[in-house]
Write a structure and sequence with these properties.
Layout: E1 3-7, E2 18-26, E3 29-32, H1 37-42, H2 47-53, E4 63-67, E5 76-84, H3 94-107, E6 113-117, H4 123-136, E7 167-171, H5 178-202, H6 210-224, E8 227-231, H7 233-239, H8 242-248, E9 256-262, E10 270-281, H9 301-316, E11 321-331, E12 343-345, E13 351-353, H10 361-373, E14 379-384, H11 388-394, E15 399-403, H12 406-419, E16 423-425, E17 443-444, H13 452-461, E18 469-474, E19 480-481, E20 492-493, H14 498-509
Parallel strand pairs: 1-7, 2-5, 2-6, 6-7, 10-11, 10-14, 13-17, 14-18, 15-16
Antiparallel strand pairs: 2-3, 4-5, 8-9, 9-11, 12-13, 15-18, 19-20
Length: 514
């Protein structure tokens, strides 16, 4: 990951490959953002005019490169758009700073060092800039030719064939200020774990089956002092986890249920995070058609987010107990696979008629939700790439939030907004529950087609313990970016929901959630 430092050095004398500055979109054209005063002075106060001549407007995510002025040790100035100029005495939106830093870091792939002279009015700004550049510099190259074989031109997930930015210095930061140091340390810890979640999502399913995922979790747990328990097929069978076993029945790779427990001696509250971990989803007997299964390695993104959030909580030493449940299985068709019409007896004791084996995520989550409920946490949040219906409703960049408590749903939504993750509260209409009535079992795994994302949420609610506050995050849209990179978001796995979960845990630790 990109090395990160705070620096009080002046931009002209800093040895770097580039100086990054911010440009806002003003009423009369681009304007140079605070933090770049020394750079603007070197252009005789005409930097904004030069950028406008080059076609820059200050629009969000816009990147313009120009030669550095005489006397600068860095050869290039990189001007990145921050979007609309804020009102007088108001600061820039944190997400605008985060995205700008990410876009600049991605544009500087191949560079050894860059100095970021973006607006840093306070320590929190340093944190979001650090987070943005660390996430924007991400690349996934595990399956590309080695640098030697490719003659130094490593192909990267950032799409430009260059190694990620090696080092970044935040100018205007205060290296000896505790708040600034804490802000970038938090950013580094969360970004590193989020990028690990991205790696997991991007890993091909032939190398990341349930057993392999569990092994990754075990290694990280050992490193960070997290207690871990892994239930294999034998333990799942003995425990009666019919949902997880039913989904994994068709695969040669057996399912797993991983429990990660981070505990703080100062904790007053406990949280349970539950993640859907379908390491590959073919649809099972209800096979997905061509064109719908090529990216299904990403169907474990919920479990990856939960894993990353628990490790982040441990690294940050949050004063809250956090348990992560990773429901891992591979959904494949075979002679041993669950069939449409089969009835599964779940861990809760309820029976489920399987009408569609491609509605499998809710089955593994149901078992994990009931297991989490037995520990009586103060709240449960599940995360899943659950339904195409949610993508139709909210698009590819926004996830849906459902809950059995309106105040908790609002609190989770606030945490998402604070983290810079687009999300939207969704209802759980009671009339849709009837569509899952089964003549054979307690409930069917399918209901009405319209509102399918809400139906899935209602199904999951059936497996949450009585009296436990619960929220469901359907991240099907933003979990995997099939388009081009933007801001700090790469093509492929995005790590969606990690930051929301961490922020929820932080707010609970502070006694400030709902």
């Amino acid at each position: 990951m990109t090395a990160l430092t705070l620096s009080t050095a002046a931009a002209p004398g800093l040895r770097a490959d580039a100086i990054v500055i911010g440009v806002a979109k003003g009423a009369g054209g681009p304007s140079v953002a605070p933090g770049a005063e020394a750079v603007d002075k070197a252009y005789d106060g005409r930097l904004a005019a030069v950028l406008e001549t080059l076609g820059a407007s200050g629009a969000e995510g816009e990147v313009t490169k120009l030669p550095a002025p005489s006397g600068f040790k860095a050869p290039v100035v990189v001007a990145v758009g921050l979007g609309a100029e804020p009102e007088k005495d108001a600061g820039f939106d944190p997400e605008a700073l985060r995205r700008a830093a990410g876009a600049a870091a991605r544009a500087l792939a191949g560079a050894k060092k860059a100095a970021f002279a973006l607006p840093l009015a306070e320590a929190a700004d340093a944190g979001v800039v650090a987070e943005g550049l660390l996430l924007g510099a991400y690349s996934f190259d595990a399956y590309k030719a080695s640098a030697k074989e490719a003659k130094g031109a490593k192909a990267k997930a950032n799409g430009n064939g260059k190694a990620p930015l090696a080092e970044a210095a935040l100018l205007g930061g205060k290296p000896r200020d505790k708040a600034y140091k804490a802000a970038i340390e938090r950013a580094a810890a969360v970004a590193e774990e989020l990028n690990r979640a991205r790696d997991l999502v991007n890993t091909p399913p032939n190398d990341l089956d349930p057993e392999a995922f569990a092994a990754v979790a075990q290694a990280a747990a050992k490193e960070h002092g997290i207690k871990v328990q892994v239930l294999d097929e034998k333990a799942l069978t003995k425990g009666g986890y019919g949902g997880i076993l039913g989904v994994g029945a068709g695969s040669a790779s057996g399912p797993r249920l991983v429990k990660l427990s981070y505990t703080s001696p100062k904790a007053k509250k406990s949280l349970a995070f539950v993640g859907k971990g379908i390491t590959y989803d073919s649809g099972g007997i209800s096979l997905k058609p061509a064109g719908h299964n090529e990216t299904m390695k990403c169907d474990m993104a919920g479990a990856a987010a939960v894993f990353a959030a628990v490790v982040s909580a441990a690294r940050l030493g949050l004063e809250v107990n956090v348990t992560g449940w990773l429901a891992l299985a591979e959904n494949m068709p075979s002679g041993s696979a669950t069939r449409p019409g089969d009835v599964l007896r779940m861990y809760s004791g309820k029976t489920v008629e399987v009408l569609n084996t491609d509605a499998e995520g809710r089955l593994v989550l149901a078992d994990a939700l009931w297991a989490a409920s037995q520990e009586k946490p103060d709240a449960i949040i599940d995360v899943a790439t659950l339904t195409g219906a949610m993508m139709l409703a909210l698009g590819s960049r926004t996830y849906g939030i459902m809950a059995n408590d309106d105040a908790f749903r609002s609190a989770v939504h606030e945490a998402a907004e604070e983290s810079g993750e687009p999300a939207w509260p969704m209802p759980l209409p009671e009339h849709l529950r009837k569509g899952m009535d089964s003549p054979t079992a307690d409930i069917a795994n399918m209901g009405e087609r319209m509102g399918g994302g809400l139906v899935a949420g209602l199904f999951l609610r059936e497996f949450v313990g009585e009296g436990i506050t619960w929220a469901h995050l359907d991240i099907a849209g933003p979990a995997f970016n099939e388009g081009g990179p933007f801001g700090y978001t790469p093509k492929g796995g995005t790590g969606t929901a990690v930051r929301t979960l961490v922020r929820v845990a932080e707010r609970v630790a502070l006694g400030d959630l709902g």
